[in-house]
């Protein structure tokens, strides 16, 4: 059965952009996304884009100015954001509660080097953030106290990802194709895969329901899923990008769905049902209605490199992608795939 694309919603700005995050909200009919501009020749901006499914799926936006350009964003809620500036500084900033305006710096993280990425723990009750600094390593911050609680000296670090529930487990990747997981209580490696990819591993994400599964995407254009208990070979390898994979994310509600975005200007929606928590629940008697592994849909809405992709924090079928030219596109999972999962 051919998959049918839903309606795409496009939000474009005349700015260069690298970072996008999904914002948790108590309103289940709103999908909130925050993007940051690089601010090369102008002040930086944070754009909050809201897709309201109760309002004929109309896009609403609010723009906040920031003192510097922004290269990384992460958040626990819709009111405060962790921000890495183009100068490499890391701040916790608050957004004005009403209307547009300028962000307010709540805390500035004092650390050596120029950071390029910040990753908040996915549990909103665990106020921890991992800061990635090339040439230095990873620093772990307790943002409830604004205190650096751990530092990992990794001169070739590329990116990191938090375990979905544990506050002491972190995955890291390097510029040579290796990935590791860490127990932060002892600062020791628990899993090490030296040649997971040919080249840099640019994206990592844990399966939210099977936390011993880790997805990785690299400069080789390959998406792989690893069982960290038996990491000798990947469970799945998908080669549906023609250039770097820049970002990937498991669906937080249905972990058989994985998004990946690349410098080939493509966004891929993959199904990995055979290695998901949904595998044991498959009761379909009709093979045509049974989810299968493979590429569900390829989205070609962008004209330049897609550096970020995010699922909605409230709607399991909505996701957004962001390209370098300031184009944000909000899409939905194809109706046929949705029915395969739900029925």
Topology:
Elements: E1 9-12, E2 17-23, E3 30-37, E4 44-52, E5 58-66, E6 70-75, E7 80-85, E8 90-94, E9 101-102, E10 104-109, E11 117-120, E12 128-133, E13 137-142, E14 147-153, E15 157-162, E16 169-174, E17 179-183, E18 188-193, E19 201-206, E20 213-218, E21 223-227, E22 236-238, E23 245-250, E24 257-262, E25 267-271, E26 294-299, E27 306-311, E28 318-323, E29 327-332, H1 335-342
Parallel strand pairs: 5-9
Antiparallel strand pairs: 1-29, 2-3, 3-4, 4-5, 6-7, 7-8, 8-10, 11-12, 12-13, 13-14, 15-16, 16-17, 17-18, 19-20, 20-21, 21-22, 23-24, 24-25, 25-26, 27-28, 28-29
Distance linking N and C termini: 16 Å
**Helical residues, percent:** under 10%
Mean pLDDT over all positions: 93
Structural class: mainly beta
Biggest sheet: strands, sense, closure? 5 strands, mixed
Count the helices. How many? 1
Q: How many strand segments?
A: 29
Please identify the oligomeric state: single chain
Strand content: over 45%
Order of helices and strands, N to C? EEEEEEEEEEEEEEEEEEEEEEEEEEEEEH
Architecture overview:
- The strands form 7 sheets. The chain has a 5-stranded mixed β-sheet, with no helix packed on it.
- A hairpin with a 4-residue loop joins strand 17 (179-183) and strand 18 (188-193).
- It has 343 residues and is an all-beta fold.
- The protein contains 1 helix and 29 strands.
- It has one helix spanning 335-342; strands at 9-12, 17-23, 30-37, 44-52, 58-66, 70-75, 80-85, 90-94, 101-102, 104-109, 117-120, 128-133, 137-142, 147-153, 157-162, 169-174, 179-183, 188-193, 201-206, 213-218, 223-227, 236-238, 245-250, 257-262, 267-271, 294-299, 306-311, 318-323, 327-332.
- 48% of the residues are buried.
- The radius of gyration is 19 Å and the shape is globular.
